[in-house]
Amino acid sequence: IRNIKVISNYISLLFVSGWISRSDSQTVEVQPGKNATLLCSNFSSFPTHTIWFRLVNQTSPICISSIYNFAQPSVLCNGVEHEKVELTSNISTIFLKIKQVDLSDSGLYFCGYYTNGHPVIVNSTYLKVQGGADETTNLTSLILTAVTVVLTKVIICLVIKMRLQTGTVQELVHLCNSKT
């Protein structure tokens, strides 16, 4: 746990200093409800405690899960649900599988390890859950459609009102002419 806090503080420093940025990372796009698998290369030839983090509010890295080597099971960090995340590994890659993603899962994920007293960032991946822009577009279309319907009704009502008023005036003129 102490090592995770040290890595978390170090990563915060790297983000603040600009050494890690979203533009330098890979991007994985996935549909809501699908699974997303993020990859981290295993650069070490010996067992290493590898940790996956997620950046929250662009300043706070939160531990998701960690694994010591591919032969051992992973350990979830506090607050992470087993049904949501699965961490597996082989000799060359550590896989973070996020199950049934939703828009709240979008964000920057990165993995790293702690060796010889120093944290090392291996990989960063931006997870983009599709649908955020589509929902905004759908909402805009819905609003524009509603406004169009309302304005069309207003125009029709005004046209009918004008015709009724014109018809009433013509009837009055006709009545006046017939009385004289």
From TrEMBL:
The keyword Metal-binding does not apply. Residues 25-130 form the Immunoglobulin domain. SUPFAM superfamilies: Immunoglobulin (SSF48726). It is found in: Cell membrane. The keyword DNA-binding does not apply. Transmembrane segments: none annotated. InterPro entries: Ig-like_dom_sf, Ig-like_fold, Ig_sub, Ig_V-set, TCR_complex_component. This is Immunoglobulin domain-containing protein. It comes from Pundamilia nyererei. The lineage of its organism: Eukaryota, Metazoa, Chordata, Craniata, Vertebrata.
